[in-house]
């Protein structure tokens, strides 16, 4: 049987993870975070980083125990139970299925600010149609193109920060180094956590490197290290960039909260820079949306092939292009919800699925190491009980801090998953089908 060659080093895996996270998203969602936190965006990112740090530790522990693709689904299935593993997979499916919608909605919001005469729904539909056609044809972005897009993103981020520092320097009343964006007398912890719950959207994808297990050198050591490094590097980028942007625009008031960075870019850099910024953000959102839709449709295809979803629809491939057209089109139809949702609700809705999956992975560490493995020494209690419990509690706190509408939509998705699981297992009497991620890789 053909196998993938193990050629990826730690650096290569970390670069993939950072690229998957799309660092420029820190600017794309700045406005909704500033409004949610009352102008304390860096504090919300710092709170999100702490929560994600403990969850990343748990992902690393489980990746070392089960160096297979499938991430949360595989970890929960093997460590706790197949049925709960299905629920974890169902939560992850929410992210894959609805993530393109949020990505295209953010891009459309910024294009709407740049071209106010064009209705925003037109941009949403344009994103959906173009990316769906590309994915149906099966065009894949080459590694060199992905690397180029990463360079563009980092250059735009670096320019944005440099211009923010220059802008701050022109205002003698604003110090360049201050703790005010992190702590002040007016801050409210519920608002910070509400913002952190949204900020975690920027971290989605830190666990995506688990899909590279079969191609990574010494995956039991490399993948856990990569997950931790990606989380810390990404978190430091988000905290650092948001810090300087917050100093440059301390107010939480914007003409359009969904495209606030467009307004800030004009203030700090003028018309030329705002054009460069817009190109960088749209290119990043387009590439991210293309990848997210391709990943989501591939997951739906894999679930159909393995009998988790109806085979006749989801396992069908185009005879001409060899791509899962039905799954791609379903992702496109789901993305039409962007015409009725705003950025805050759409990102929060996706985060509900992420927090549910994160919580179950933290729980998996306790079940695998502390309960089943009986790792009860002092060091083991810290690593396999206390740390994952902190991660679990942080994820649950973030989940309940989400937008109320997002929680209602997330709970509805969870109930739908439980009902489908009941039907799939004959009233929970038998185990659900198991997905073969190696075949899908």
TrEMBL record:
Its main location: membrane. InterPro entries: AA-permease/SLC12A_dom, APC_superfamily. One of its GO terms (biological process) is transmembrane transport. It is a multi-pass membrane protein. Residues 13-364 form the Amino acid permease/ SLC12A domain. GO terms for cellular component: membrane. The chain crosses the membrane at residues 12-33, 45-64, 84-110, 122-141, 148-169, 189-206, 226-245, 272-292, 313-337, 349-369, 381-400, 406-425. It is found in: Membrane. This is Amino acid/polyamine/organocation transporter, APC superfamily. PANTHER family: AMINO ACID TRANSPORTER-RELATED, PUTRESCINE IMPORTER PUUP. Pfam families: AA_permease. Keywords: Membrane, Transmembrane, Transmembrane helix.
């Amino acid at each position: 049987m053909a196998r993938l060659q193990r050629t990826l080093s730690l650096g290569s895996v970390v670069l993939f993870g950072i690229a998957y996270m799309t660092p420029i998203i820190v600017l794309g969602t700045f406005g909704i975070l500033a409004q949610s936190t009352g102008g304390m965006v860096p504090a919300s990112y710092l709170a999100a980083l702490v929560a994600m740090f403990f969850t990343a530790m748990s992902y690393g522990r489980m990746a070392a125990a089960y160096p297979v693709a499938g991430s949360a689904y595989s970890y929960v299935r093997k460590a706790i139970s197949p049925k709960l593993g299905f629920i974890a997979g169902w939560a992850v499916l929410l992210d894959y299925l609805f993530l393109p919608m949020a990505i295209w909605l953010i891009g459309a919001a910024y294009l709407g600010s740049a071209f106010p005469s064009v209705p925003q729904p037109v941009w949403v539909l344009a994103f959906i149609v173009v990316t769906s056609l590309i994915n149906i044809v099966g065009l894949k972005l080459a590694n060199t193109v992905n690397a180029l897009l990463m360079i563009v993103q980092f250059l735009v981020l670096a320019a944005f920060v440099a211009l923010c520092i220059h802008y701050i320097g022109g205002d003698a009343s604003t110090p360049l180094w201050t703790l005010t964006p992190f702590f002040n007398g007016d801050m409210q912890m519920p608002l910070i956590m509400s913002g952190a719950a949204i900020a975690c959207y920027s971290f989605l994808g830190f666990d995506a490197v688990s899909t590279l297990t079969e191609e990574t050198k010494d995956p039991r050591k490399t993948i856990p290290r990569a997950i931790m490094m990606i989380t810390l590097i990404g978190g430091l980028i988000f905290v650092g960039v948001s810090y300087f942007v917050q100093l440059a625009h301390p107010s939480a008031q914007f003409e359009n909260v969904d495209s606030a960075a467009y307004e800030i870019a004009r203030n700090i850099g003028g018309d030329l820079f705002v054009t460069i910024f817009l190109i960088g953000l749209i290119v990043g959102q387009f590439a991210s949306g293309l990848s997210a839709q391709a990943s989501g449709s591939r997951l739906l295809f894999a679930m159909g092939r393995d009998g988790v979803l109806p085979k006749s629809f989801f396992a069908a491939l185009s005879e001409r292009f060899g791509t899962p057209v039905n799954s791609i089109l379903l992702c496109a139809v789901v993305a039409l919800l962007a015409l009725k949702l705003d950025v805050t609700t759409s990102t929060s809705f996706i985060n509900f699925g992420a927090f549910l999956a994160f919580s179950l992975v933290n729980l998996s560490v306790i079940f695998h190491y502390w309960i089943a493995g009986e790792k009860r020494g002092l060091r083991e209690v810290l690593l396999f009980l206390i740390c994952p419990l902190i991660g679990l509690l942080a994820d649950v706190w973030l989940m309940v801090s989400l937008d109320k509408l997002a929680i209602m939509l997330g709970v509805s998705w969870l109930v739908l998953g439980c009902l489908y699981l009941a039907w799939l297992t004959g009233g929970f009497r038998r185990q659900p089908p198991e997905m073969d991620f190696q075949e899908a890789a």
